[in-house]
Design goal:
Blueprint (H helix, E strand, L loop, with lengths): L3 E6 L9 H13 L3 E6 H4 L18 H12 L2 E6 L8 H8 L9 E7 L7 H13 L3 E9 L14 H31 L5
Parallel strand pairs: 1-2, 1-3, 3-4, 4-5
This protein binds flavin mononucleotide.
The site of flavin mononucleotide (FMN) has 14 residues, from loops.
């Protein structure tokens, strides 16, 4: 059965570039037979964190929060597509993730970073590694690093040139590793119900 993979992306900029990488990953996972869906924080449009999802009495959370909580709970794995703002994470994606906690537990997460330059968002990926671990995900060791993103992916999310070829080669290993950990976590959840 196909794995249900949510691909998170969180830039709110009008001229955002990272959507190219998010689209590429969703298409690549779907081509491998996975049930992948883009979760675009800008489209979800959560306000700045007031109450976490779990702080709402049952059935009273705003609809967007309720719908996203259901999707996160039903997912087998996550991919976080992370750009870098001033050596840090993008606030839109961080704000979205902070609305949840237990909903993330017991599933693997993979980090794909990018930037306009050659560092490819690596500093933001480092921040996300600790954050996702803190939120109860198994952060896999394979990463994707894409930079400069404009030299690797076209507006249609298709790779081109030397950097695009490098991305294609890296994606193969990245997706394999994620699938391995997804299967492992799925089997363990089926064998032994998570304690919380
Ligand atoms: C506020 C801001 C801060 C940035 N800081 C960094 C940075 O620290 N390192 C970097 O490599 N690129 C930085 N950039 C350039 C981004 O990598 C580039 O604009 C990228 O396309 C941002 O992702 P987005 O287009 O999906 O929003 C910054 C861009 C913005 C708008």
């Amino acid at each position: 059965m196909a794995d249900r993979v949510l691909v998170f992306y969180g830039s709110y900029r009008s001229d955002r570039m990272g959507i190219r990488l998010a689209d590429y990953i969703v298409a690549g996972l779907q081509a491998r037979g996975e049930d992948a869906e883009l979760i675009d924080a800008k489209a979800v449009g959560l306000p700045m964190l007031d109450r976490m999802y779990k702080e709402y009495p049952s059935g009273s959370a705003p609809q967007a929060l309720e719908a996203l909580a259901s999707k996160i709970r039903a997912a087998d794995a996550f991919v976080f597509v992370t750009g870098e703002y001033n050596w840090g994470v993008q606030p839109g994606l961080k704000n979205l993730t902070d609305h949840f906690l237990e909903e993330w537990f017991w599933r693997p997460a993979a980090i794909a970073s990018y930037s306009a330059g050659r560092i490819a968002g690596a500093r933001s990926a480092l921040h996300w590694h600790g954050t996702l671990s803190e939120m109860g995900m198994i952060v896999i060791s394979s990463t994707l690093t894409v930079g400069p993103i404009a030299q690797a992916l076209g507006a249609d999310g298709k790779p081109f040139g030397e950097a695009g070829q490098l991305l294609e080669r890296s994606f193969f290993r990245f997706a394999d590793d994620l699938a391995w950990w997804t299967e492992a976590a799925k089997m363990q959840r089926a064998r032994k119900a998570p304690p919380y």
